[in-house]
């Protein structure tokens, strides 16, 4: 693997425009702080939930930044955790207000399931996105026609208007690759994805040409997992890991399924998926070979 890919990994000191990140940074920062406070007091999630008349799972979602915050709940948790410093309480309550600020993608709430909202927020805030795909070209690298065909396959009963809105959302998400500073995307794509003619031959050929072009961007690295590689580290399905700027917030692991998604958030789980991702980039073809492979598949399509 070439050395330029390692150089693309952010240092963790970038500053992100809060307008593009929306409320997610506030949610993650507040959730992480509440988790540390709870653990320092050796309080279980069940007990914390009881303090705000909620379930253990809600505390988990709050701490993972996957749920909005009611200021009253935050105040009650801070009291339960023994936080009496007025300055700290005021800071965290301000974060709670920021965490409830509407984000641009909420305009598409009618086509975004609840379980995906946390991912969209983290994606827009991310400084680094690492992903492995086995079925489709990553959404951030799709052409409009490929996205439309893919969405039709997964939402066969959707109206033309709904499909249009889903395509528009997917295309708008891609702005993170062209903002300043741009998010760094490092994707490993199974060869089967590139040989599956989603939307027909014409659409697939245009998608392959788009991948060839986008791979030239300094903020995008694409590797291909060839059939000849045989078994690999992520046979269980697609994996996405998001790193937030600043170096203080936990990475977000996202495992999308047919009708839901999982967000493993224990440190050991996050470390496990990083290990999987790091093994994948070793097992896949070098990024330096990607353009040649794409050209060959394009000629064969």
How does this structure look, described?
The longest helix has 17 residues, at 24-40. A 6-stranded mixed sheet has the order 3-2-1-4-5-6, with helices on both faces. It has 2 domains: 4-8 and 104-300, Endonuclease, Chain A; 23-99, lambda repressor-like DNA-binding domains (434 Repressor (Amino-terminal Domain)), CATH 1.10.260. The chain is of the alpha/beta class and 301 residues long. It is 50% helix and 10% strand.
Assigned CATH architecture of the largest domain: 2-Layer Sandwich
User: How many H/I helical runs?
Assistant: 14
Globally, the shape reads elongated
The SSE order reads HHHHHHHHEHHEHHEEEEHH
Question: What's the alpha carbon Rg, rounded to whole Å?
Answer: 20 Å
CATH topology of the largest domain: Endonuclease, Chain A
Strand content: 5-15%
For the sheet with most strands, the description reads: 6 strands, mixed
Numbering strands along the chain, what is their spatial order in the largest sheet?
Answer: 3-2-1-4-5-6
Cα(first) to Cα(last) distance is 27 Å
Average pLDDT: 89
Mind telling me the CATH class of the largest domain?
Alpha Beta
Can you count the beta strands? 6
The number of domains is: 2
Helical content (DSSP H or I, runs of 4+): 40-55%
The chain-level structural class is alpha/beta
